[in-house]
Amino acid sequence: MDIRQLQYFVQVARLNSFSNAAKSLYISQPTISKMIRNLEVELGADLFYREGKSIRLTDAGQILLTKAQNIVESFGSLSSELDSLRNLKQGHIRIGLPPMVGASFFPAVIGQFHKRYPEVTIRLHEDGAKKVENDVETGLIDIGVVVLPVNMAKFHCFTFIEEKLELLVPIGHRLAGVSNVRLGELAEEEFVLFREDFALHDRIITACVKAGFQPNVVYESSQWDLISRMVAAGLGIALLPETICRDMDRSRIEIIPLTKPAIPWQLGMIWRRDRYLSFAAREWISFAKGLLGEQFLPSDYIDISDT
């Protein structure tokens, strides 16, 4: 028994005619008669009996019609919903965003995506990049924005920004006014960092250790604007990405390029290699690529095996 047999049977029952049902389905009468006969053989019961030129349902036919109508209607509803998904009339996407990334890059992208696909819902999960990466890996979210590099054996990825970190100091600081600062010159400073669940926390500490010192971290926060205010209040120095620094009020802080070594900041959108992505999620990736613009990283930033 297949869905076509049930569809043909329901149509014959509705119209009380093999010939009219065949015309409505755009098939030949012998074809529909054969399909109904095969169904009767499979069920071991006659479904129709003839009264002159008309037909009527048998008791078995009445029982089958009740069930078959529900099945055919459910199948039609399923087909319609799948068509809606394929045409992106509906859908749901779970996206992970670090707070500072979301505010800087994604309001416009989300707004334009919603304008094009108003029935697709997006649920945003705001966490540090390390938590976002873990949630993509475990399947709690579909797509995540993270600080690169990531393990490319696990994730597909496209990169949409590559910048460097810059130094924030309060007005009147000993380094205020210099053209650039070497990382090693910050060994005696007090640092204000993102919390441990943010990728930049580990990135900055690792860079400092490689430069020959363990940074003295006095405050941690999940908000870049709070970090900048703590710097302005003289509570420490901070290292933040260029994009974030461009939007800051410089009346109480000074921003200085960091050199030797510069600390890179690359953002990418990731999703699992081995997990199904919905039509809506795939369209989001394509849409975001088009708006954000794909960049390619140097090979030494693309893949790491020990993350």
Automatic annotation (TrEMBL):
Alphabetized InterPro entries for the sequence: HTH-type_LysR_regulators, LysR_HTH_N, LysR_subst-bd, WH-like_DNA-bd_sf, WH_DNA-bd_sf
GO molecular function, one term: DNA binding
Record's GO cellular component terms: cytosol
Domain HTH lysR-type: 1-58
Keyword terms, alphabetized: DNA-binding, Transcription, Transcription regulation
Record-linked SUPFAM superfamilies: Periplasmic binding protein-like II (SSF53850), Winged helix' DNA-binding domain (SSF46785)
Highest taxon in the source lineage: Bacteria
Family: Belongs to the LysR transcriptional regulatory family.
Name the UniProt record assigns to this protein: LysR family transcriptional regulator
